[in-house]
Design a protein that fits this description.
The complex is a heterodimer of chains A (518) and B (117).
Chain A: H1 3-26, H2 30-35, H3 42-53, H4 56-69, H5 73-98, H6 103-110, H7 114-147, H8 151-169, H9 171-199, H10 206-214, H11 231-244, H12 249-252, H13 261-293, H14 295-301, H15 308-357, H16 364-386, H17 394-408, H18 410-418, H19 424-443, E1 449-450, E2 458-459, H20 470-488, H21 499-508, H22 512-517
Parallel strand pairs in A: 1-2
Helix pairs in contact in A: 1-9, 1-15, 3-9, 3-13, 4-5, 4-7, 4-13, 4-15, 4-17, 5-11, 5-13, 5-21, 6-7, 7-8, 7-15, 7-16, 7-17, 7-19, 8-9, 8-15, 8-16, 9-13, 9-15, 11-17, 11-20, 13-14, 13-15, 15-16, 17-19, 17-20, 18-19, 19-20
Chain B: H1 2-19, H2 24-29, H3 31-64, E1 71-73, E2 76-77, H4 78-114
Antiparallel strand pairs in B: 1-2
Helix pairs in contact in B: 3-4
The chains are: A mainly alpha (518), B mainly alpha (117).
């Protein structure tokens, strides 16, 4: 590719690394490594949240999904936005009021058992790895298109780059990278949106008429059902998205980076507006890609449509725009993956190493060492797995991670805050059953099994008919909590009931004075 | 550095609070707190049901029925209008929450003052 793309790449990378370096000078304690010192404002945190969420899967995957499957792109999109309502109404403020560094802190505020902490941390790590897969696959496809290097090599390069990132900066660095990246991504999307609509003479009604003849699918492109023949499959994906974000560890810890519940709340409002407007633009970018780039060209670059956005940028804005959008996508992938790695590694060093193995007595130095070790470990696993997933739409891959979060974390988070009878056994059962059933059902699904040889990992009839397991695994997660609570009820009879403390703290706030002075 | 200092002072505040031994059971049992929870439930539960049903209805209506395949303006069908309306529904519900929770903050303050915290 030309010199301009390489130049832009270098410039962006230097900018981003400079922020990381600057932030790393501020990161003195393990506490500020984990949660950015708790000092972000609502707008900053809202932007950082948007940055966390507008990952490669949102930007590249959704534009690809709208361009190749028309209306069915919706089913991969809107659930995430609604999910932030679930967070706002049910999770954000109690979590802010109860948590300290990790999700494990919050759950163990109520159940002070090492097993509970251990399972929560394990869960966090598994979900983090799954969520990284979508990002790494996108990175692989992007570098392949950009530089013409093989997919496997590009996944490795991105993996190493983001490790460097995490090891130097931690959460402060990723917070600032997310903020800057969110601004760049929304800005870039807006410029592309205006340029695409220019080609359609800003005729928002006419563009639909154009789309009837723009693709090989004809009028079906505008109707639901191009991808999802089975309504249950679409409902399952949607349900996973709606409940998933509210259980996603790296999004939830964002609420620990603000000073109090009021700021947590306001940052969600910022996020909603940024993401909502972004989503509307994404639809038209998908249309633009289908009409201007053409279905066959999109599929040729990546069968799942992951490269629709960069190709569209090249068509409307030439090499410069192509370089810019690709560089923003790359920064996006780097930043999101770094955020996820920090979350997973924190769960290991803070929960498993410090709290469980060392009884909370590990030194700062030891903890920082374990964070770095865990970061390397998690990255290596994710890179290894993503080598097999080249042909999946990245928005779909991340929907699996979200379903995992919705099935294993969300039931436990909600019941911990709201159900008095909920106990330790229930929490452990819920998390494990949610986790195992989601992974198990994906293993039995059409993603892994296909009658035609070579299409999926194994040849055969899928035992579970849906590509996304949410509609079964999420209820199973809740059921697991209930059954576990029932089994554990006798054992925990004599354990002190601290539900009043939890509900009072989660409603009123931990930093009581902050509320009064507010 | 200032951030770190600020946070450590907040932490000290919390520790002092803890030393004072806040009587959570007492607050939990108080009439004001029960009222607060009831008030909170009264708006959280109906709204949560509303936005969940509104957004989960789309896949079923779109893929099991044909009622959304009606043209509204030009070639834009009801399915597209519904899909995009979810985004605006989210904005609306979100702003309702912000208003309601500002009221709740007031109630929380009253309880805190009453309990002498």
């Amino acid at each position: 590719m030309g010199w301009d793309i390489i130049l832009l790449f270098v410039l962006m990378s230097i900018g981003v690394l400079f922020i990381t370096y600057y932030a790393s000078k501020k990161t003195k304690t393990a506490g500020s490594f984990y949660t950015a010192g708790g000092g972000l404002t609502a707008r900053q945190n809202g932007l950082a949240l948007a940055g966390d969420f507008m990952s490669a899967s949102t930007f590249l995957g959704l534009i690809g999904a709208f361009s190749l499957t028309g209306y069915d792109g919706f089913f991969l999109m809107y659930g995430a936005l609604v999910s932030f309502l679930v967070i706002l109404f049910l999770v954000a403020e109690p979590l802010r009021n109860l948590g300290k560094y990790t999700l494990g802190d919050m759950i163990t505020a109520r159940f002070r058992f090492k097993q509970v902490r251990g399972v929560t941390a394990f869960n966090t790590i598994i979900i983090s790895v799954f969520y990284m897969l979508g990002q790494l696959v996108a990175a692989g496809a992007l570098f392949k298109l950009l530089l013409g290097i093989p997919y496997n090599t590009s996944v490795l390069i991105v993996g190493i780059a983001m490790l460097a990132f995490v090891l130097f900066g931690g959460m402060t660095a990723t917070s600032w990278v997310q903020i800057i990246k969110a601004i760049l991504l929304v800005g870039g999307t807006f410029i592309m949106f205006v340029m695409v609509m220019w080609k359609f003479n800003f005729n928002f009604i006419g563009i639909f008429t154009d789309m009837k003849t723009a693709t090989p699918f004809g009028i079906d492109f505008l109707n639901p059902g191009l991808k999802y023949k089975n309504g249950w499959d679409a409902a399952s994906v949607t349900l996973g998205l709606i409940l998933g974000t509210a259980g996603l560890p790296h999004v939830l810890v964002r609420f620990l980076t603000v000073p109090n519940a009021q700021v947590a709340r306001k940052s969600v409002v910022w996020l909603m507006w940024i993401m909502g407007l972004f989503h509307i633009m994404v639809i038209f970018l998908g249309f633009g890609a289908a009409k201007l780039v053409g279905t066959s060209n999109i599929i040729e670059a990546n069968p799942a449509g992951n490269m629709a956005a960069p190709l569209l940028a090249k068509f409307i804005g030439g090499d410069f725009m192509f370089a810019f959008i690709s560089a923003v996508s790359f920064a996006t992938i780097l930043a999101v993956v770094a955020g996820i790695v920090v979350t997973g590694a924190t769960a290991f060093s803070h929960d498993i190493y410090n709290e469980i193995l060392k009884d909370g007595k590990a030194t700062e130095k030891q903890q920082m060492f374990m964070v770095r070790l865990a970061s390397i470990f998690i990255t290596v696993i994710a890179i290894a797995l993503s080598l097999f997933l080249q042909n999946f739409n990245v928005a779909f891959l991340s929907s699996i991670a979200l379903t995992l979060a919705a099935s294993s974390n969300l039931p436990v988070i909600l019941l911990t805050i709201f159900w008095r009878k909920f106990n330790k056994t229930g929490a452990i059962f819920g998390m494990l059953i949610g986790l195992i059933s989601t992974i198990g059902l994906v293993m039995l699904s059409p993603n892994v099994w296909n009658l035609e040889p070579g299409v999926a990992l194994f040849t055969g009839n899928p035992i579970f008919p849906l590509a996304s397991p949410g509609i079964v695994s999420i209820p199973l997660g809740f059921l697991g909590c209930y059954i576990g609570t029932f089994i554990g009820a006798r054992k925990t009879k004599n354990v002190e009931d601290n539900f009043p403390e939890i509900i009072v703290k989660s409603t009123i706030g931990n930093d009581v004075k902050g509320v009064v002075n507010h | 550095m200032e951030l770190v200092k600020e946070q450590s002072s907040v932490k000290k505040d919390i520790e002092q609070q803890d030393n004072k031994q806040i009587d959570y059971d007492k607050i939990f049992a108080s009439e004001d707190f029960k009222q607060l929870l009831l008030y909170k439930k009264k708006f959280i539960i109906p709204y949560t049901i509303f936005y969940l049903v509104y957004s989960l209805a789309l896949p079923f209506l779109a893929l099991f029925t044909n009622i959304l395949n009606v043209q509204v303006i030009g070639d834009i069908t009801l399915a597209w209008v519904y899909g995009i309306s979810i985004i605006f529904m989210s904005f609306a519900v979100c702003s309702v929450y912000v208003k309601k929770s500002a009221e709740l903050d007031e109630k929380v303050k009253q309880i805190l003052v009453k309990e002498g915290l």
